[in-house]
Amino acid sequence: MLVMETRVKIRLRYYVKKHTISQISRELKLSRNTVKRIIREEDTRDKKYKRDSQPLPKLGNFKSQLEAFLTEDSKLQKSERCSSRKLYERLKIKGYLGAYDSVQRFVKQWQLESGKIGDAYIPLSFAPGEAYQFDWSEETVELGGIVQKVKVAHFRLCHSRLFYMVSYPRETQEMLFDAHDRAFRFFKGIPLRGIYDNMKTAVDMVFMGKDRKFNRRFLEMQNHYLIEPTACSPAAGWEKGQVENQVGNMREWVFVPRLSFADLAHLNAHLEASCLEQAKIRKHPEYRDLSIRQVFDEQEASFLRPLMPAFEGYKEHSCKVSSTCLVGFDRNRYSVDCHYANQVVSLRAYATHIVIMAEGKTIATHTRHFGRDKTLFDPWHYVPLLKRKPGALRNGAPFQDWGLPAPLQKVRHHLTKHSGGDRECVRVLLAIGIYGLETVTVACELAIQDKVISADYILNLVGRLSSPAPCKPIQTPDMLKLAHEPVANCRLYNTLLKREVSYATH
User: Fold this and answer.
1) Any idea what DSSP says for residue 306?
2) 100 near 85, Cβ under 8 Å?
3) What is the reported pLDDT for 469?
4) What is the mean pLDDT of residues 171-186?
5) In whole angstroms, what is the distance from residue 431 CA to residue 315 CA?
6) What's the Cα-to-Cα distance from 176 to each of 139, 167, 295, 315, 498, rounded to whole Å?
7) I want to staple 279 with a disulfide (CB 3.0 to 4.6 A). Which of 32, 228, 292, 303 is the partner?
8) Using an 8 Å Cβ cutoff, are 456 and 447 in contact?
9) What is the number of other CB atoms lying within 10 angstroms of the CB of residue 204?
10) Which CATH class is domain 131-303?
11) DSSP assignment, residue 124?
């Protein structure tokens, strides 16, 4: 295609200077047909070359394989689909030697033709400290040698793009509360507004437009932190597009290859460190010469409101304690102090632990278990029952694998070997409720050293160890001191004795 400069020369010579086609052809060294074509053109604008089709020589043999990958991905949830980069890596395994750009262009064209992309959106802008976006994702990790799926809470500050992630076994409301507390402590401040989708843990009902009926406990949390909640329109993910993109990016940056840790605590420590690392190396999309962390430190950190005490993020349930001193929650059972058997109590489920309340006080605390059909005992809840059922110490389920201090374990093993030893051991255990575990443990250790292991001897040592210290003398104030202190006079007593004798003789 001729450049625009040559086209201008041809038209000027013909229309202005009145040169013939043959003359123009000789002067510009062009064919007569080319000159005729330029003169007869009605459109004088520059025509850019545009390929009818993009040649993809190295991809040619792999097009069918790539289409198969894309068709397979289209049937999956959005969170489980492969990016163009992942598809490129999968093709390389199959023997593809071409460039990534060819794969990327093919994927984009395939998505356009299949209607997967093409929507238009309005770019959003946020002031420093104005808002954050929140979303959940599901990721596959290995914890304790078991491959499992976890729920990951994603936060993103809308101005600086600083992000935070924390994982949980479930996507429940108490996890949502705990995630907010952790995120605000990570950001070291609180924004003014939170942007959410219409998740059930936050929104009870969706009305027309932006009207929502938020969950009562969710509103309590927002009120505690003084945050204005904003819910997106249904099926309008672009309204929180930053965190939507973050889910895909962090899956590629952090969760591939699959992470492997001993437990959730170690996984969350790694995720927090990864957020800090990525924020330092990733450039801000608007301030290209600054990293995300630099924009946060220089522009947004000072606009966040100061931290406040953590919200009591629990979900409360009312339940009845069974005759075996157990309450059921989430397909597991937890023990309660035996004094509250057959009574109605309040169970508060936190993200990491369970607290059971009655009459305004805590009667049991357990680490939360996320499996199924497991009973978690606290043996001390059942110790008072041993007073009338001492034989249960030997075979009682709560007392199996009881982690007592070593001296107490040795005393228990020694006493239960002979007849009546269960009752003696129970006497020692009941003393712990009065004198404390440390005092009774020391007494057991002394009894083992003295080679006299019996309940009487141990309780005697406990009494001696716990005897109160002598009272300090009290200084008498001057105003209470007597002006004339009384003096003992034994002669008066002798006089009385003489009178008694005289009465006796009469």
Assistant:
1) P
2) yes
3) 66
4) 95
5) 36
6) 17, 10, 27, 11, 92
7) 292
8) no
9) 13
10) alpha beta
11) -
- Secondary structure (3-state) at 465: helix
DSSP 490: H
SS3 content of the chain, % helix, strand, coil (to 5): 45, 15, 35
Q: HSE of 264 in the Cβ direction (CA atoms, 13 Å)?
A: 17
User: What integer pLDDT is reported at residue 236 of this predicted model?
Assistant: 61
Residue-by-residue DSSP string for 396-462: -GGGTT----HHHHHHHHHHTTSTTHHHHHHHHHHHHHHH-HHHHHHHHHHHHHHT---HHHHHHHH
Domain ranges of the chain: 4-40, 60-113, 131-303, 315-376, 383-465
For 456-471, what is the mean pLDDT? 83
Whether the predicted model's global pTM rises above the 0.85 cut: no
- Region 118-130: mean pLDDT is 78
Report H helices in 94-206.
100-113, 173-187
One-letter amino acid for residue 23 of the chain: Q
The residues that bridge with 157 in the sheet, in sequence order, are 132
- Residue 129 and residue 295: Cα distance in Å, rounded? 12
Residue 50 has φ and ψ, to the nearest 5°, of: -135, 125
Q: Is the predicted pLDDT of residue 59 greater than 90, yes or no?
A: no
- List the one residue out of 227, 212, 36, 46 whose CA is nearest residue 130: 227
